[in-house]
Amino acid sequence: MKNHEILAHTHHRPFPLPQGPWLMKQTWNDLLFAHWPVSSSCLKSLIPPGLELQLWEGTPWISVSPFFMDPLRLRGLPRLPFVHRFLELNIRTYVIKNGKAGIFFLNLDASSRLAVLSARSLAHLPYRYANMSCKTDGEKFTFSSKRPIPGHGQAEFSGKYHSKGSDCFHAAPGSLVHWLTERYCLYASDSEGRLYTGDIHHLPWPLQEAKLELDVNSATRVFGLVHDPDPSLLTFTKRLEVLFWPVTRI
């Protein structure tokens, strides 16, 4: 889709588009959203001062998303060699600051060392390199991410997932799915506790019902998070084009 077409659709946003030009465009492919409620006690310590943990009916949630990035490009430039396509697994939760709701990433694993280095240095996001693979059998995906943690085994997420049927929907405003997915701001912090924020924009999430056969998930356990083995909510998105504005210090 043309960028101006994406920018022309803003009625679904909770706040206006940011001032200034966007910087980067990412396309997320074959993305699974796996959502769990967790206890506030095990999550609050992971949220930096200055951000408030956001709750749905009194409970915080985390989301785990495996997907395939292709392409990634900076505005006005062609695809960047060695960094325009890679696998990613992110773990996020939901926060708010000064009335602006957004996402806080606990971790972002990626199969590209260059992407990890760039994101950590330029956007202050907690990217880490992991050994990752994704095998496709028609519309079924077998995804694996393994990242060694010295002295603590490894953070691993592996399983098989696919969409259930071909019907696509947009989350209804006021629903839990909408609260979890329709987010247009991210927050980050650095080692000294300084806060950063960045805006994103895309069309409303094109969602499908999904099925997941989860083999291993120690990726959330390494953060001390306690939750049920199986996700409480699953969706699948075939493709989403996303525009990013620069990440700036608050």
TrEMBL record:
Would you say which domain of life the source belongs to?
Answer: Bacteria
Species in which this protein is naturally found: Paenibacillus auburnensis
Q: Which Pfam families match?
A: DUF2071 (PF09844)
Put simply, this protein is called DUF2071 domain-containing protein
InterPro entries, from UniProt? ADC_dom_sf, DUF2071
